[in-house]
Structure formats: C-alpha cells, structure tokens
Amino acid sequence: MSFRDIKGQDKAIQILKEHLKNSRLAKSYLFTGPEGVGKKLVAKQLSKAVNCQEADLEPCDTCVSCLKIEKGGHPDIHLIDNGRDEIKIEDIRILQAGIKLRPYEGKHKVFIINNAHNLNVASANAFLKTLEESPGESLIILVTDKPALLPKTIISRCQVIKFCSLQRPELEEILKKDYSLQNNLAHFLAYFCEGRIGRALNLKDADILEAKNSVIDEFALAERLDLENLFPRDRDEMRDSLNILAGWFRDMYLIKAGLPHSEMINLDRKAELLLQMQHFSFLELDGILKFISNALLYLEQNINVKLLQSNLKAELWKQ
Ligand SMILES: [Zn+2]
After folding, report:
1. How far, in Å, from the CA of 40 to the mean position of ligand 1?
2. What is the pLDDT of residues 176-216, one digit of tens each?
3. How distant, in Å, are the alpha carbons of 252, 275, 278 from that of 282?
4. What is the reported pTM?
5. Cα–Cα dist 205/17, whole Å
6. Residue 71 CA, ligand 1 centroid: distance in Å
C-alpha cells in the first residue's frame, strides 16, 4: 500500500507531500477527522516515506524499510494504541525514553499515538514536555477523531492535518468498482458508514446486510412484543444495533421530509420502510430518534445492556 492507494484524502496527502518535498516536515502532526477515513493509514505511509531507501515522496513499498513498516516490524516505528482505554503516563515514559535514542536502522524514528484524546492529565502534561523538546530526527503523529478533548497546549504545538469523509455516492462507487461489492451492500455500507471508507471495509465481509436486517426485523418490524426471548447482546453489539435502528428511523424522517429515495440508508428494504413510515408522525419519529440517541449515551455510562434492550423494544412497540 502507498499514498496513491488511499481513497478520498488527496488534500491531506497533498499537504504532507509538499512538506516532504520542501523538507518542511513538522516535528509533530495532529491528524484529525472522523473515525475510519484513513488517518492511521496515512500515518503509516508517512512513516514509510520518511524512511524509504528508494524514494522521497511516494514510498516504494519494496525496500526493506517499507516492507518492515507495512508488516509492523520496523524497530524505529512505534505505535501507542490503547483502543478506548486511557493513555497512561507509563506509555509516555516509554516514548520519552525511546525518542532520545538515535534511529536504530531507519532515517527517522516515528511515534504514532492513536486516539490521542485518551491522554489523561498526567500523561498529557508529560507529553507536552516531549513535544517541546523532541529531537530533530524524530516525527510524532497524533491521531484523533475527537480533537476537542485534547489540551489546546498540545494542539498548538502540532501541525494539524484535517481528514474528511468521502461523499457517500463516491464511496458507493469505490466499493462497487474497486472491491466488487454488490449494489445493495455497497449502497448500504456507503450510507450507513457515512462515507467512512475504513469502517465500510471493516464491515464488508461480515454479512452486515443480513445482520442489519435481523436487527430491523427484531426491533422495528416485530409482529409481537416478546421481552422474554431477547437476543443476547454485549455492549458493542448493542451499540451497533442502536446505530442500525437510528438509520432506519432517520430514513423515515428524512424521506417524509422530502429526501430522494436513492439517498436512504436502507434502500434494500425500501418497500417495507415506506409502508411502516405511514404509521409515524414527525413528532413520533423525533421521539424515537431521541430515545435511541439517549440510549447510546447510557450505553457509554455502563447501563445494564439487557435492561436497555427491553426498554428499547418496549419503546418502539408502544408506537
Ligand atoms: Zn521504500
């Protein structure tokens, strides 16, 4: 993979290439933008570009350095990725110890901190010091979809590069053309993932249409209210189900408001959606969407998932 294989981020890549070309690379970058649009991929390609043994702008992808970075085994490329968990001061201490040493075999040491908004107060303070003192041959790349949660003092010391989602029809075309997805699946993924290609590609092999439709059948189109036999879900599955239902009712709301049918997320179930839509007023749909968005918030606050699930089902049934 190389810069040219990353779809829809031409502007961000163009800026970075300009920096590379004019040797104006910043010591620290902050990549911001929605989840799943390619920020981490670009960080990886930039790590390759600054260390490539063959080329300067577009990594060659064949030299030892590029190959090691692609596989995640280059000793000078360090990734801090704690998922949703806090980035602790110990993580930053390891970074601080490493950044002082010269590159082991590459030209530049690169430190990528994913979900940088998860720095806690102590680690953010420690990290700020590193940003101020970082030696010339190292490159720091912070990646986040929630830059508002980062201290301004950190942001102001980074060169900010903004990433954006693809247009949905554009993503739909890419999924059909470059990934040979069927029309229904490509359309659903492009709209459900709101143009975020990384998320769409993560979901493309997961029988997502089938899974999506079983959530809609269970909650939105069920013929009777059966709270005894709810399909057991963990927190992540519940989040996905809520997002699917939000898409279903948002479709109704927007179609009622005049959105063209081709723009609906659930185009594969258009007939059923249009039929069910007749039973809801704007006010009722608004109430359901609020309920779902509150449920998503409660889910972040450790609410009992089973309870949430039966409340949701009862709420939708009430209509
Ligand atoms: Zn190379």
Report:
1. 18
2. 999 999 999 999 999 999 899 988 998 998 888 999 999 99
3. 9, 15, 10
4. 0.78
5. 33
6. 13
